Amino acid sequence: MELKSLDSTKKFAEAVAINLKLNDFILLSGNLGTGKTTFTRFLIQYLQQKNQRPLEEIVSPTFNIVQYYDLGKNLKVAHYDFYRLKKEKEILNIGLFDTAKDFINIIEWPEIAMNSFNDFLQIKFTYDPDKDLRSLEFNGKGKWLGFDIND
User: Fold this and answer.
1) pLDDT in tens, 17-51
2) Contact status, residue 116 vs residue 101, Cβ threshold 8 Å
3) pLDDT, tens only, 68-97
4) Residue 64: which residues within 8 A CB-CB, separation 6 or more?
5) What 3-state class would DSSP assign to 3?
6) Which strands, in side-by-side order, build the sheet including 133-141?
7) Domains of the chain, first to last
8) What is the Cα Rg of the chain in Å?
9) 84 with 21: CB under 8 angstroms?
10) Contact, 120 vs 105, CB < 8 A?
11) For residues 14 and 42, is the Cβ–Cβ distance under 8 A?
């Protein structure tokens, strides 16, 4: 799938958001600047608007590792950034699996923990600066196996 503009990124994020439930894992892979945080911002802001919550500034939680968003109606998002983590054991220290069932879990740089997830949608972002084009690849497991944005 190709994302040719911010608007197409926003529409894609909204299409993913409508499929989300608590305890879901969305794993975002790709180099710096490929659109992971932008996608997350659009996804969370869509859910905020849908639940009539004020829009918050959505930034990558690189330094604090996780940022939480309360969307009301018992809906919460945990936005993780594993960029600074070096060992899979560190994920246990932040309590991800202790609290996952209470959140929609969005994880940037999930590669360190890929063996820990049984049910997820992984979105791999790549960016071609010559064409100013972002491309996406999907890898799903569990309920996300065979996920197609056009379904």
Assistant:
1) 998 999 999 999 999 888 899 999 999 999 999 98
2) no
3) 999 887 899 999 999 888 888 888 788 788
4) none
5) strand
6) 2-3, 133-141, 120-128, 25-29, 104-108, 76-81, 66-70
7) 2-136 (3.40.50.300)
8) 15
9) no
10) no
11) yes
Which structure tokens are listed for 97?
Answer: 């699996």
Residues 47, 136: Cα–Cα separation, whole Å: 22
The pTM assigned to this predicted structure is 0.90
3-state secondary structure 16-81: HHCCCCCCCEEEEECCCCCCHHHHHHHHHHHHHHHCCCCCCCCCCCCCCCEEEEECCCCCEEEEEE
How many CA atoms lie less than 13 Å away from 41 in the CB half-sphere? Answer: 13
Token pair of 78 as six digits: 């945990």
